[in-house]
Specification:
Layout lengths: L1 E10 L7 E11 L4 E5 L6 H9 L6 E6 L2 E2 L5 H4 L3 E4 L13 H11 L11 H9 L18 H13 L5 E5 L7 H18 L2 E5 L3 H6 L3 E6 L2 E7 H5 L3 H12 L6 H4 L2
Parallel strand pairs: 3-8, 3-9, 6-7, 7-8
Antiparallel strand pairs: 1-2, 1-4, 4-5, 9-10
Helix pairs in contact: 3-5, 5-6
The chain binds adenosine-5'-triphosphate and magnesium ion.
The site of magnesium ion has 2 residues, from α1.
Length: 261
């Protein structure tokens, strides 16, 4: 459902800061895949999402979404089909608006215009109730006053209120306390399953990377250095990923590099 073909991307070409990040990079995602992405800081994970989501353009290569060439489609246009969550819970929500107003905004910008009663408060309340974290009681509360976990859960509902074809999660639970992170992870899995959304998730939590989804890829300097799924993946543990990282990158760095702790 997603294909990146022969993508190249160099930052600041011709300057002292020139950084060739991607060179002839190709990546295929099947419909229904839930792929976790690991890699050290600066390995190009967020840049990959920027290329997929249209925030940056590749220098070469094409991006196909469901067979359609979206390489030069704006980020705004792609947002109808691609949802995205960031590490910072404040990125996906408007703090000055209430929970209800945020949801209405998401329903409208998510391409949900054709649906009648899109501003039906009861329907949106029900959506929140399904989360089972009490957000439905806070419909008129300003989002800026919610906890990080509540905000990220709301951002998740907003990003999936009109289920996107593809959901990009960029360390979306990393800034939350362990309990909230677990809750948001659980909600994420539930929403993805219920709506059959194809998903890519960046994480530094190697246990999460191996126990979520159906495939894991390891990025290093803009290359996929390891790609595992099925039975091979079932056998893996976090320590194996660290060992593989060291083997593949020939970088005998501290474990912290991959774990980002
Ligand atoms: N807009 C930009 N201009 C110049 N260089 C950039 C830009 N965005 C990213 N880079 C560089 O590209 C490399 C990859 O960055 P990227 O943010 O994709 O890494 P990452 O894998 O997401 O890292 P982290 O785990 O820290 O989030 C880094 O060296 C970064 O400095
Ligand atoms: Mg990043």
């Amino acid at each position: 459902m997603l294909d990146l073909m022969h993508i190249s991307k160099t930052y600041d070409p011709g300057t002292i800061n020139e950084k060739i990040l991607y060179h002839d990079f190709s990546f295929h995602v099947d419909q229904g895949d839930y792929i976790t992405i690991v890699g050290a800081n600066g390995s190009g994970k967020t840049t990959l999402f920027n290329l997929i989501g249209g925030r940056i353009l590749p220098d070469e290569g094409i991006v196909l979404l469901d067979g359609k060439d979206v390489t030069f489609e704006s980020e705004h246009n792609r947002a109808h089909e691609i949802g995205r969550l960031f590490q910072d819970p404040s990125m996906g929500t408007a703090p000055g608006l209430t929970v209800y107003e945020n949801l209405v905004l998401a329903a409208k910008t998510g391409g949900w215009l054709s649906m009648p009663n899109s501003n039906d408060k009861e329907y949106l309340k029900q959506k929140l109730k399904e989360l089972d974290i009490g957000l439905e009681e806070r419909m008129n509360q300003r989002v800026g006053t919610l906890s990080g976990g509540q905000r990220q859960a709301l951002a998740l509902v907003m990003a999936t209120i009109h289920p996107p074809k593809l959901l990009l999660l960029d360390e979306h639970t990393a800034a939350l306390d362990p309990q909230s992170a677990e809750k948001v992870t659980q909600l994420t899995d539930q929403i993805i399953q219920d709506n059959n959304i194809t998903c890519l998730m960046i994480t530094h939590d190697l246990d999460q990377a191996l126990h979520t989804g159906n495939r894991t890829i390891m990025l290093n300097e803009g290359e996929i250095v390891y790609d595992v799924s099925g039975k091979d993946r079932e056998k893996l543990e976090a320590v194996d990923l660290i060992r593989i990282f060291k083997e593949k990158t020939r970088k005998y760095l501290d474990d912290e590099v991959l774990l980002n702790v």
